[in-house]
Design a protein that fits this description.
SinI_DNA-bd, HTH_17, alpha+beta, three-stranded antiparallel β-sheet, 3 helices, Helix-turn-helix domain-containing protein, single chain
């Protein structure tokens, strides 16, 4: 994986979210389960909209301030 969050995609995979946030698979799925991080499935593949990931990060920064 060359970049944690590819800018050419509009939806990212769970491993890409893990790399971007430096979190475990369990924690990413926990964020998805608790609806803190929106996602959708296509078949068996789970995807997170890139905009939702950016919004999540912005919200975390606001809460930390």
């Amino acid at each position: 994986m060359s970049a944690p969050l590819p800018t050419s995609h509009t939806a990212v995979t769970v491993p890409e979210v893990m790399a971007a946030l430096k979190l475990s698979r369990f924690k990413v799925y926990d964020l998805i389960r608790t609806r803190q991080l929106p996602s959708f499935t296509v078949g068996r593949a789970r995807r997170v909209p890139a905009d939702a990931l950016h919004t999540f990060m912005q919200n975390q920064l606001k809460e930390a301030a």
